[in-house]
Amino acid sequence: MDTIYAAEPYKIKVVEPIAVTTREQRAQFIAEAGYNTFLLRSDQCYIDLLTDSGTTAMSDNQWAGMMLGDEAYAGSRNFIHLQEVVRRYYGFKHIVPTHQGRGAENLLSRLCIKPGEYVPGNMYFTTTRAHQELNGAKFVDIIVDEAHDSQIDVPFKGNVDLAKLQRLIDEVGADRIPYVCVAVTVNLAGGQPVSMDNLRAVKRLCEAHGIQVMFDATRCVENAYFIKEREPEYAGRTIAEILKEMMSYADGCTMSGKKDCLVNIGGFLCMNDDHLYQRASELVVLFEGMPSYGGLAGRDMEAMARGIEESVDYHYIHHRIGQCRYLADQLVAAGIPIVRPVGGHAVFLDARAFLDHLPQDEFPAQTLAAQLYLESGVRSMERGIVSAGRNQETGDHHRPKLELVRLTIPRRVYTYAHLDIVARACEALYRRRRDIKGMRMVYEPKLLRFFTSRFEPLG
């Protein structure tokens, strides 16, 4: 390939051995796991691309900060540092730490949602929608139509469709919409970004109707990189400057620090409203801990504060996006169908096109993830009909248009050579795709079934 990919902007100081297994061993492991990659043990996986959540390699600076943990029950100096960093880079007035992102989602949903309300968002995310529904809201998808087509290559497939949002406001009334949830980037669309112009327009529309805008800011630095790359007026701006402006178009955010904050645990809820902060400070004591630690040790808050500072370094994020593109370019060259354009945290295989002989009710993405592990020891994640769950009213499957397998690249963990192996495994599987049979579900939990469901092969 002619493209030049940036070298790793770090050098390796500590190494961790990884498992090398035989096909016979993997056949046993995946069967025992019910053909669900979530149920595999990490020491059964060769290259683990299940998630980028909490799988980051922290820097020497972050590890040094861990030794400065102030484990006071209240008023930890590490919380003060984290608060200062969040205000500097994100601009929000208040921060409530949580044990991870879904802790923040739980607080926001309980604080803001009343039964019978509607929460519009630019495509659902699994835990986010679960918290919204558990608190009585109905999620409404207002993402642009292009996001549901894996092959349309447009720069900002994560954008909110303003006409869809306005139509919902007209139909149900602004008073029944507690907030608009905007993900930056959109995970289940393939890691697709939202443009600054769109964020600005969403905020303007919501302000006109008295509706709050809340970001899912989990991968906000990746979104800032795409804005710098794809919106000409931001080409000369720093990642930090772009990030700060992005956040100015929200009233608050939930954050899973296990992604773009470069840590292995932690998250937070942010807001500008004093009254909402007071209520959040009361509720966090019930579910997480004191408002100045919220389920985190002081050392974890220090690592997160330092991770936020490191995350806006251009060389770091340029290399991160480049690793995704490196893997994607190899797959495209081999004719393997993926989501286009490539997002910021993963390459998404289009399982519907990859296994086009399988109906969706035979779980092609779940099947493909299991087969990729069997082929190579590479662990990936289903993002299709299993992740979508069931309709609460009818009990039938949600059937998303996107039936995907996510090859998620952990931050600062793997090299280009590891990605070469992943590409070769996908190519081998693609050559024999017609021999692959689907699966049936043999165990299904009521909530977030993709974590613990079990399957067996058909035939």
Automatic annotation (TrEMBL):
The modification N6-(pyridoxal phosphate)lysine is found at residue 259. One of its GO terms (molecular function) is tyrosine phenol-lyase activity. The keyword Lyase applies. SUPFAM superfamilies: PLP-dependent transferases. Residues 48-423 form the Aromatic amino acid beta-eliminating lyase/threonine aldolase domain. It catalyses: L-tyrosine + H2O = phenol + pyruvate + NH4(+). One of its GO terms (biological process) is tyrosine metabolic process. Its cofactor is pyridoxal 5'-phosphate. Homotetramer. This is Tyrosine phenol-lyase.
